[in-house]
Every structure is written in C-alpha cells, then in structure tokens.
Amino acid sequence: MGNLILPPSxxxxxxxxxxxxxxxxxxxxxREFFEEYNxxxxxxxxxxxxxxxxxxxxxxxxxxxILQFLYWFTFGGxxxxxxxxxxxxxxxxxAHNNKxxxxxLRHVLVKYRYGLKNPTTASAISSSARGSRFMLRxxxxxxxxxxNAQSNNNLEKxxxxxxxxxxPRILDTPEADPMRLSIINIxxxxxxxxxxxxxxxxxxxxxxxxxxxxxxxxxxVNESETLHLYMRNExxxxxxxLGRKVNIHSIDRELEDEIQxxxxxxxxxxxxxxxxFRENTKIGWxxxxxxxxxxxxxxxxxxxxxxxxxxxxxxxxxxxxxKVTVGEVISPFEFSNVLPKx
Length: 342
Description:
8-stranded antiparallel barrel; 2 domains; 13 helices; 11 strands; about 350 residues; about 40% helix; alpha+beta
C-alpha cells in the first residue's frame, strides 16, 4: 500500500478493505476521502466526555437518536445501561467509524473510478455506475443491457430450457480462521451479533445466475424478528445487504399483474416515500442448502434508491410465486461474534 498518502494514524484505524482500495486511487481522491471521513468520524475521548459530563449524549454524538431518547427516558437504564456503556463506547466508536469509512469510500469510488472529477457529472452517471459496485457487472450484463425487449424475451426462453442443475456451484471462499470468524464464514446453524442483538442463522440459499455469478442468502431470526441477509463478493470486496420480507401488494396493488403482463416490474417503484430504481435483471437457479431440495428456476429484479443505501428485491419463481425483500446496504463490519451455535 505504498501509494497511500493518508496519515499512518488514520490508516491503522481504517478497515483493511478500505485502505486496500484507497491505495489504488489517485492522491486527489485520497485527500477527498480524508476530508470527508474526518468530518463524520467520531472520537472515543469526546464520547466519554459526553457520556460522563453532558448527561449521556454519546448516542446523539453517533446520530443514534432513537437510542438517545430511550437512554434519556430510562435515565441510562437506571444506571445499568450507563455503566455498561463505559465499556462499550470504544467498540461503538469503531463500528460508527467503519460505517463512515465504507460510505465515504463508496462515494469516492463513484467519482474517481470513471475518471470523473466534476461532482455534478459524477452524480449524473451514478445510476449507471451503481451496478459496478453491487451487481458484479460483466460483459454478459453489458451486452444484455443493450438488447431490445424481444432479444431479452428470447434469452429468457433459452435460459428456461436449460436443465435443472443437480448441485450448486462450488464457490471460492477464503480459509476460515476458527479463532477469528467473520461474516463471510457464516453458515446455517451459526450465531451472529448485529445491532446489539444475537441472531441465529436458520436457513441458507445459494443463487447461481446464468451469467456465471453466484450469491448467498441467509435467514436470521431472534425471539421476535426475521431478517434476510444477502451476500456476494465483488473482487476483493464483500457486499452485504439486510432486509425484511414484505407482501408484494404492499408495494403496489397492481404490481403482480404488471409483471405478468410486461414480463418485468416498472423501472421505478415507490415504497414508504422512497423511490427505488431498477438496476438489473438476473435469471438463474436457487438452491436451498439447508434442506438440500431441488433447485428452482427464478428471475429477480433488484432496486436501489439514489443514495445506494436502501434496497428492494423482487424474486419470481418458476411457479409464478413472488418474494419481495426491502432493506438496506450494511457494512460487513457491523456484524460481529460469528460463531457456530454448538
């Protein structure tokens, strides 16, 4: 990482994946990252001062206002919460700064990966650039994007005639260190901590797309909630998206009929006052690894909002049933304590 111009004190606190990508960017991009990161990053010393001397305002310092009001309302959990936070503040600051680093890097990559130094121009093409960060764009994808509707229909017919795969693809996964498991090592039957809660992984799926890419999905549960975690690698980067299932008719009452009529959903969908823009269409096979059932043919449409933070995924299986997930992009560093249940 000899190309890094960032201060060593900063590079030591940044995630390795962030520093590795920054080292490949020009110095101007690194300076922009440095300025934006310093503006949003938080320090442990100030958090302790706010917790001890300013009526426990450390959650407001981290922009976690719901927790802040709850903390005030309960008087710091009647002192218990306040005492626990004395030990948790360093890890809270680290998690916040890791999230800031990932978000800042994402914005810098959009601007400089394509050689754009004009923020207005970078913003104008961000819609077409999003896929390169999250969708594993390949020559196949670019060719497919340029085809007309008739060509897409012919392609779908050809794909649907392919034989059902017997087993999922074998994926290249890094060696797991049993002493330092991370979210990339998660499997069905594992426990993982996220958002101050322990979740159990109860189901695991693998998606093998016709363009040669693959991805994973995990169903996480606790005592009261169910989440769906989507994971895929893009080069050396791991992308994680977390969402909840919603009814397709809660998005739009006519959405199912429109998909059946036009063979795809609209380019833009609005849900809970957020506009979602369709990024890509994927066709492939879904394997349930937990139950080891037969693979199912499916088509998925993935959407992101303008900030590339909020996410929507519509999944149509071969029997015309639908699964809709709405969520957001989550930094892999927000998951911790990945352990087998037994």
